[in-house]
Amino acid sequence: MNTILNSRADLDALVFAPDRLATALAQINQSRAHGDATLLRFGFADSAELEAYGLAAGVTLEAPAPYVPVEPTPDLAATQRAYDAATEALLDQRAASWGYRSMERAAGYAQSTNPQWAGEAGALIAHRDAVWLAGYAIASAVLAGERTVPVLADYLAELPAMPARPAV
């Protein structure tokens, strides 16, 4: 069985290109001469609609295959990068709430001779570690198939809460 046309667009292109239409009709007639049915892979209401395009009756019509949506496979590496960036941003926001430019800058005060700054740095470093450990536990559960990838907002909500600011 020969497939000559796969869509209405193919047929429309033939109708507006007489030389291509003539070639297609010749292929249909040649197939019929050899006893082959010619298959058009798109749905017409009936053979009259097909004949309106100037194609002879007797062409076998096949209904198009039903559309089955395919869920996109998540790109876990890209998702992990996005969640890591969101985690970093969350940690930076939390450090900023204590007056530091970023979590990295806050951690730089761990050895400060100022007890308040050193205490805050220690608390923020411990918080940073807890957040990353929780994030990695979530990622491990996703990779092990134990859970689905959470929505970013849900992921961030699952991370440990900001600790109280130490008073030194």
If you had to describe this structure to a student in words, what would you say it looks like?
This protein is mainly alpha-helical and 168 residues long. The chain is 55% helix and 5% strand. The chain is built from seven helices and three strands. Strands 1-2-3 form a three-stranded parallel β-sheet. The longest helix has 29 residues, at 115-143. The radius of gyration is 33 Å and the shape is elongated. Residues 37-45 have low confidence and may be disordered.
Strand content: 5-15%
Distance between the termini: 86 Å
Outline the biggest β-sheet. 3 strands, parallel
For the CA atoms, what is the radius of gyration?
33 Å
Number of separate helices: 7
Give the strand order, joined by hyphens, for the main sheet: 1-2-3
**Residues in helices, as a percent range:** 40-55%
**Structural category:** mainly alpha
Shape: elongated
Low-confidence stretches: 37-45
Give me the strand/helix succession. Answer: EHHEHEHHHH
Q: Quick check: average pLDDT?
A: 76
Number of strands: 3
Indicate the topology.
Elements: E1 2-5, H1 8-15, H2 18-33, E2 38-40, H3 47-52, E3 60-61, H4 76-96, H5 103-107, H6 115-143, H7 152-158
